[in-house]
C-alpha cells in the first residue's frame, strides 16, 4: 500500500495534496503518512506473532515526539541509545518497561537515568559497562535486566559506514569475552543477565546474516544455561530493509519464516528494534527549485532549497533516494536503476543539489528528471528514517518543519526553525 501517490498529475500523501500542505507550511518540509507508519508496524507484528515478541521502535531513525507517541499507542516499545532518546521516548508516553538501551558509551548519568526509570533492559556492549551497571544497580538495590550485545563477526553486506557486526566494529562483545563473562556471572549479583542481543547493520537485504548470527548464538545460549543463567530473551536488533528504488525487496514474513524457528529452538522471547522499516518509506522531503543552471560543459544543475544539512544520507553514504516533481504529467517509473537512468522526451539528466557550500551537497547525480523550472516542487522519497533525525544547522540553516498526514487532515508536528532558534543558548562575552 503506497500512501504517496499521484492523482490528476499531483502528488498526494494519503488524501491530502502535498502542494496544499506546502502552500501552508513552506519548504523544505518533511511529510509523513500516519497510515503508512501504522501499517508497517503491524506488518512486522503480524509476521512475528508466532512467538512472544516485543517490537522496540528504534528512536534514532525518527525521534519526533508525535511519531513516538503514535507508535507507543500501537503498543510499540523503544530502542534508545542515549539519555536524550530515553527522555524523548518517555516524554512521548512510551512505557519504560518496554524500553531497551543500547550503545557502546553509556555514561554514569545516562545509566542512572535509565535505572531510575526502570527501563526494560540494558544491551551491554563491554565488560567495563557491565561492571558499572552492577555497581550502580547495587547502590540502588535494583536488579536490572541485561542482555549481552554479541559481536558475531558477520558481514551483513551493508554500506561500510552502517555495518556493525564485524569484529573490527566498535559494537558488542566477541564470543570469547562473552563466554568469560558468563562463567563469572556470579560476580555481578546486581544484574539479571537474561538476554543476548545482536544488531548486524542496516539495511540488510537478505535473511542470511540474521540466520548465520542466530546459529552462532544458539551454542552460546546453551553455554549460558549450563552456567546457570536463565536466558529468556533474544534481541535480533534492527536492519529490516525497505525499497529505495521501487524494486521488490524481502518482506517481514521472509525474515520471520527463517528467524522464528531459530528463536523457538532457543526457547526465548523475541525482541526486535526496527527503525527504517517502519519510517523509511513513510516519509518524504519536499523541496522547491530555487534555480536551474547549465554549464558550458553540458552539466545541468537543479538547485533546490533542501540541502545535506536536512537530509545527509546521499552525502554521507552515497544513498539513492528517488526524486520526482510534485506536479507533473510524466509518470514516475515504477522501478529505477540507479546506474541506468532512463531518459525520454521531457526527461533529461540533471544533478540535483542543495545550496550548502560543500561539493558533497548533492542529492542526485546524472538523474533522470522531468524538466523543472524555478519554483517547482520536488519530492525526495524514502526520507522518513534517518532524515530529520540526522539533520543539522550547518551553514546556519534552520531545520525544516515536519508534518504528519492522517487521512484528509495534516498536523505540523515540528515547527520550522527560525533564525532566533539558531542562536538560542549562545552567550556574548
Ligand atoms: N538497533 C540498533 C542497536 C541500531 O544501532 C540500529 C541502527 C537499529 C536498531 C535500527 O536499525 P534499522 O532497523 O533502522 O535499520 N544512518 C544510517 C543507518 C544507521 C543505523 C544505525 N543503527 C542510514 O541512514 O542508513
TrEMBL record:
Top enzyme class: lyase
Biological processes annotated in GO: lysine biosynthetic process via diaminopimelate
Entries under Gene3D superfamilies matching the protein: Alanine racemase (3.20.20.10), Lyase, Ornithine Decarboxylase, Chain A, domain 1 (2.40.37.10)
Molecular function GO labels: diaminopimelate decarboxylase activity; pyridoxal phosphate binding
Keywords on record: Amino-acid biosynthesis, Decarboxylase, Lyase, Lysine biosynthesis, Pyridoxal phosphate
Limits of the Orn/DAP/Arg decarboxylase 2 N-terminal domain: 35-279
Pathway: Amino-acid biosynthesis; L-lysine biosynthesis via DAP pathway; L-lysine from DL-2,6-diaminopimelate: step 1/1
Amino acids binding substrate: 276, 313, 317, 358, 386
Entry-annotated residues carrying N6-(pyridoxal phosphate)lysine: 60
Known EC number: 4.1.1.20
Binding site for pyridoxal 5'-phosphate: 239, 273-276, 386
Cofactor: pyridoxal 5'-phosphate
Catalysis performed (reactions): meso-2,6-diaminopimelate + H(+) = L-lysine + CO2
Positions annotated as active site in the UniProt record: 357
PROSITE patterns registered for this protein in UniProt: ODR_DC_2_2 (PS00879)
Every Orn/DAP/Arg decarboxylase 2 C-terminal domain range: 30-384
Pfam families: Orn_Arg_deC_N, Orn_DAP_Arg_deC
Family in the record: Belongs to the Orn/Lys/Arg decarboxylase class-II family. LysA subfamily.
Main function: Specifically catalyzes the decarboxylation of meso-diaminopimelate (meso-DAP) to L-lysine.
Record's subunit section: Homodimer.
Protein name: Diaminopimelate decarboxylase
Gene label: lysA
Amino acid at each position: 500500500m503506497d500512501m504517496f501517490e499521484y492523482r490528476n498529475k499531483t502528488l498526494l500523501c494519503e488524501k491530502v495534496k502535498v502542494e496544499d500542505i506546502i502552500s501552508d507550511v513552506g519548504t523544505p518540509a518533511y511529510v509523513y503518512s500516519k497510515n503508512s507508519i501504522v501499517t508497517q508496524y503491524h506488518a512486522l507484528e503480524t509476521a512475528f506473532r508466532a512467538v512472544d515478541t516485543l517490537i522496540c521502535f528504534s528512536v534514532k531513525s525518527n525521534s519526533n515526539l508525535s511519531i513516538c507517541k503514535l507508535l507507543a499507542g500501537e503498543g510499540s516499545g523503544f530502542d534508545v541509545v542515549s539519555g536524550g532518546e530515553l527522555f524523548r521516548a518517555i516524554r512521548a508516553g512510551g512505557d519504560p518497561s518496554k524500553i531497551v538501551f543500547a550503545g557502546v558509551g553509556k555514561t554514569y548519568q545516562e545509566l542512572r537515568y535509565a535505572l531510575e526509570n526502570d527501563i526494560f533492559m540494558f544491551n551491554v556492549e563491554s565488560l567495563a559497562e557491565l561492571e558499572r551497571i552492577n555497581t550502580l544497580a547495587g547502590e540502588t538495590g535494583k536488579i536490572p535486566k541485561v542482555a549481552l550485545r554479541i559481536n558475531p563477526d558477520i558481514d551483513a553486506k551493508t554500506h561500510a559506514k552502517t555495518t556493525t557486526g564485524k569484529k573490527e566494529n566498535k559494537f558488542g562483545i566477541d564470543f570469547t569475552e562473552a563466554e568469560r563473562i558468563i562463567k563469572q556471572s556470579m560476580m555481578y549479583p546486581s544484574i539479571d543477565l537474561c538476554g543476548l542481543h545482536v544488531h548486524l547493520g542496516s539495511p540488510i537485504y537478505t535473511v542470511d546474516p540474521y540466520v548465520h548470527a542466530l546459529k552462532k548464538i544458539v551454542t552460546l545460549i546453551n553455554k549460558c544455561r549450563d552456567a546457570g543463567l536463565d536466558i529468556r530473551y533474544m534481541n535480533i536488533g534492527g536492519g529490516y530493509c525497505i525499497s529505495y528504488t521501487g524494486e521488490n525487496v524481502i518482506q517481514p514474513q521472509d525474515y520471520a519464516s527463517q528467524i522464528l524457528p531459530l528463536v523457538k529452538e532457543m526457547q526465548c522471547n523475541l525482541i526486535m528494534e526496527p527503525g527504517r522499516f517502519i519510517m523509511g518509506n513513510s516519509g518524504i522531503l519536499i523541496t522547491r527549485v530555487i534555480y536551474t543552471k547549465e554549464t558550458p560543459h553540458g552539466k545541468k544543475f537543479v538547485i533546490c532549497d533542501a540541502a545535506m544539512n536536512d537530509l545527509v544520507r546521499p552525502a554521507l553514504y552515497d544513498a539513492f533516494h528517488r526524486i520526482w516533481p510534485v506536479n507533473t504529467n510524466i509518470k514516475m517509473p515504477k522501478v529505477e536503476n540507479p546506474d541506468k537512468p532512463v531518459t525520454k522526451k521531457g526527461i533529461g539528466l540533471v544533478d540535483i543539489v542543495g545550496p550548502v557550500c560543500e561539493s558533497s551537497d548533492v542529492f542526485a547525480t546524472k538523474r533522470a528528471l522531468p524538466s523543472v523550472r524555478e519554483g517547482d516542487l520536488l519530492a525526495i522519497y524514502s526520507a522518513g528514517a534517518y532524515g530529520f533525525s540526522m539533520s543539522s544547522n550547518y551553514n546556519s540553516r534552520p531545520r525544516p518543519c515536519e508534518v504528519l498526514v492522517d487521512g484528509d487532515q495534516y498536523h505540523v508536528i515540528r515547527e520550522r526553525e527560525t533564525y532566533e532558534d539558531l542562536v538560542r543558548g549562545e552567550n556574548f562575552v
